[in-house]
């Protein structure tokens, strides 16, 4: 899975996570948070796609 997440530029996020925005975030913090959240959603999508593929393989057997 590491190579898969790495290929989708999400490995660091998967391994380390990200912090929620605190009180009074700056514009830079908002932009960074939005980008990290996008990558988190992308990683989740990749994981779900892999699970679906595995399920299809198991059903086909």
From TrEMBL:
This is Uncharacterized protein.
């Amino acid at each position: 899975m590491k190579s898969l997440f790495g290929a989708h530029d999400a490995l660091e996020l998967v391994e380390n996570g990200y912090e929620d925005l605190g009180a009074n975030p700056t514009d830079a913090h908002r932009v960074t948070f939005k980008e990290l959240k996008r990558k988190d959603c992308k990683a989740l999508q990749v994981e779900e796609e892999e699970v679906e593929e595995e399920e299809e393989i198991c059903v086909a057997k």
